[in-house]
Amino acid sequence: MSSIGSVIATPHGPARVVTVMPGSVDEAGQKISRVLTTPLSQAGTQAAGEKDLSQSERQNLKQLQSADRAVKAEERKHAAVAGAYGGAPQYQYVQGPDGKFYAVAGKVDVGVPANTSDEDAARAHKAIAAAATSVSTPSSADFSAAAQAHRKAVEAYAQAGSRDDHGGLYDFSG
């Protein structure tokens, strides 16, 4: 199964990275089943309720909040355009200086169901290619996924055309 997604640059510094997997639902409505974390550094152990943030920590926090909004918006768009051929968005989180977690990267797994007709596979790959490039700033991975999906769509169109008993052409533009 391929993935389409985004990685937003984050401020440098110690952080706790959490990878969220699909399954149950978290407080934001995101489905998760398990959480994988990396160890915290000394600076990453700040209390969640700490109010006295330095100027650089406040700036870092604003960047993390902005990245969180951008990543989640992009992944929701990928998933919406992929439709039935995409899974739920998956995110990687970084712990901010306020102790909260902010999404800094994400992906949406995409794929075509097994035993799909050539015509349906072509349509599915076309939808996956559209989903990969549906965001305002597609990543190199998005362009790669789109190119791969386009190649598979062309192959499926060719297979469908070769099975046409009447020698006619199919119109898959819809």
TrEMBL record:
Q: Which named protein is this?
A: SprA family protein
Question: Where is there biased composition of kind Polar residues?
Answer: 56-66
Pfam families named in the record:
SprA-related
Q: Which InterPro entries match?
A: SprA-related (IPR021973)
Q: What superkingdom does the record give?
A: Bacteria
Q: Where is this region: Disordered?
A: 39-71
